[in-house]
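Exercise 3.2. Students should predict the tertiary structure of the chain below and write it as structure tokens, then compare their answer with the key that follows.

Predict this chain's 3D structure.
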Amino acid sequence: MGQTCSTPALKILMIGTEMAGKTSILYRIKLDKEIQTIPTVGFNQEEIMIRGGKYFVTDLSVPNYFQQMLEENKGVIFVIDSSQEDMHESLELFTNMMHILDEKSHPILIFCSKCDVKQPDLEHIEKYFELKTIKQQYKIVKCSSVTGEGIAEGFQFLSEQIHM
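Answer key:
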């Protein structure tokens, strides 16, 4: 994870509900270990390296800034806490995000976090969030900030989609 790269960092915007695991995922990549985090106020920004790719990730806790920050970013990560039974709040945030994305071609990575706590039903999530109706390229990946599972796979998808 700590390789050098001379290409410019891809700017990625990460959004999700409070306590979904956004910051934990970001620092799992940055530090290559699990850390205890506190709820983000505003946003965190980090440049990270993963599988030889360089990314500048903005972990956004305030959805109101999403539209302003979207223009300068190439992709979106939407984080869902898959250990929760009720995903209504995530669905509402996702729906609002999709209205803002509208016709934009930003690829969307959907991280189903906390898969070490509860394995997500990816088919259910795809149906619940009506993902087959969106215009953007997307991928659902189960991930864990504790084990690191799925994180590199998700960033690989973003990199491939952005460089197409």
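Discussion points: Helices lie at 22-31, 66-70, 88-101, 122-128, 151-162. The first strand starts at residue 10 and ends at 16.
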